[in-house]
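Records of this kind hold a single protein each, on a pair of labelled lines. With that in mind, the following record should read easily:
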Amino acid sequence: MGNLVLHMEGRGAMSENPDPDRLKALAEKLKAVQVEPERKKHNSGKFGGAGPAWQMIVELTTGMAIGVILGLALDSWTGLAPLFVVVFTLLGFAAGVRVMIQTAAVHQKKVDAAALEKKQKP
């Protein structure tokens, strides 16, 4: 069998060198039709502060979990059963609390900035 060559012309055809004027016209049409999506306010309503609160809970839990896992690993490696679990759990708790305090400070700065901006608007 010979080579079968399909040549499409018209509407569905794609060329290697597209017409720049047609592309610009298409881009303008797309820009005119596209609508900016409406943005929701995340910190509104009854449970507006739940996001940062959950973030802080996860940070504390993660710090403690890492401490427990490291403590168990070191206890099984050294044979000193409860020593490293206790020490690293406390260290993980302290690290989690430290990160929670940093997150709370960042969140408070955002809230203060939003309140100041709202106050300055007439």
The two ends are 79 Å apart (CA to CA). The longest helix spans residues 83-120. Helices lie at 20-33, 50-78, 83-120.
